[in-house]
Specification:
With 326 residues, this protein is of the alpha/beta class. It is built from 11 helices and 12 strands. The chain has 2 domains: 6-101 and 293-324, Rossmann fold; 104-284, Rossmann fold. The chain has helices at 39-47, 62-66, 86-91, 104-119, 122-130, 159-170, 185-189, 196-202, 222-227, 245-253, 293-311, and strands spanning 6-9, 26-29, 51-54, 73-76, 96-97, 151-155, 174-178, 191-193, 205-208, 233-236, 259-262, 282-284. β9 (205-208), α9 and β10 form a beta-alpha-beta unit. It binds glyoxylic acid.
Length: 326
């Protein structure tokens, strides 16, 4: 009987989530749940692996591929795939899979929560209560910005962007979006496509939900920030690299925009001495967009199923380079 394929999983995941690989592959993995696999350990594991189940903290680049002669499948437990050199995998005929759809609603919930937390200054309020800085009820104490009835600008009306737009409709918001192409779904959502520069000039909330690519890196730079309203709030629930953080810090310090709510950063974990964290009008959370137990289980299971399918020569449900499939 042929040897089962060898799979390396780069983080400890519940056995139940890895069910699709049980019995069809020899599964090994990095045993830690909260510490990423060191690069040298990953390279050594890749050398004998037929399949890799990775996270967004693991770089799958040409060096890793060069170290992995047997590799026949890469599956990431994330929708974003900027950590994987998909073009290089395609050149090697290696399918790359990811986990969209199962995290859409959960991530949209978080994006909307960030928007509301920044608009209504929830973290400033929490700090004021905890630190005993709560004066008597006062007319403009911690007065923030309305959400309902305001203009929302969504940069990237993909699956998650559309889910945010659905939430915004419940708040009677006017919805604009920008992106490479017209979206058929936009009409139903009441969303109007405008150029990015017009979107930022008109929006009270700018929510970033685009993928990180060479074209979108630092799409929010000093120039774009200068075009935003001084009362506007920037929300980033996509990738830190979309924003020039140094320019964002300057814009916030100088009061050129009202606030920012960020789930993602150029460098993660965000260093605790980062200047963003000195600013009262910044809400910062640690890349938790899809972090509910149910959704993370669904993502892990889908990543395992995608890899099991790729290794068995079946068509995985979510393959980024289907041209590699027979
Ligand atoms: C999270 O950021 C993901 O890409 O799934």
């Amino acid at each position: 009987m042929a040897e089962p394929p060898r799979v390396y999983v780069t983080r400890a995941l519940p056995a139940e989530a890895l069910g699709p690989l049980q019995g069809v592959a020899e599964v090994q993995g990095w045993p830690e749940a909260e510490v990423p696999v060191p690069r040298d350990v990953l390279l050594a594991a890749a050398a004998r692996a037929d399949g890799l189940l990775v996270l967004l903290t693991d770089r799958v680049d040409v060096d890793l591929l060069a170290a992995a002669p047997r590799l026949r499948g890469v599956s990431t437990m994330s929708v974003g795939h900027d950590h994987v050199d998909v073009a290089a995998c395609t050149r090697r005929g290696i399918p790359v899979c990811h986990t969209p759809d199962v995290l859409t609603e959960t991530t949209a919930d978080l994006a909307f929560a960030l928007l509301m937390a920044a608009a209504r200054r929830l973290y400033e309020g929490q700090r004021a209560v905890v630190q005993g800085r709560w004066p008597a009820w006062s007319p403009f104490f911690l007065a923030g910005h309305d959400v309902h009835g305001q203009t929302l600008g969504i940069v990237g009306l993909g699956r998650i962007g559309q889910a945010v737009a659905r939430r915004a409709r419940g708040f009677d918001m006017r919805i604009l979006y920008s992106g490479r192409r017209e979206r058929l779904e936009a009409a139903e959502l009441g969303a109007r496509r405008v150029p990015l520069q017009e979107l930022v000039a008109q929006s009270d909330f700018v929510v970033l939900l685009a993928a990180l690519t060479e074209e979108t890196r630092h799409v929010v730079d000093a120039d774009l920030l200068a075009r935003m309203k001084p009362t506007a709030i920037l929300v980033n629930a996509a990738r830190g690299g979309l924003v020039d953080e140094a320019a964002l810090v300057r814009a916030l310090r100088e009061g050129r925009i009202a606030g920012a709510a960020l789930d993602v950063f150029e460098r993660e974990p965000l260093p605790v001495d980062h200047p963003l964290l000195d600013l009262p009008n910044v809400v910062a959370v640690p890349h938790v967009g899809s972090a509910t137990v149910a959704t993370r289980m669904a993502m892990a299971r889908l990543a395992a199923q995608n890899l099991a399918d790729a290794l068995a020569g079946r068509r995985p449900r979510y393959c980024l380079n289907p041209e590699t499939l027979a």
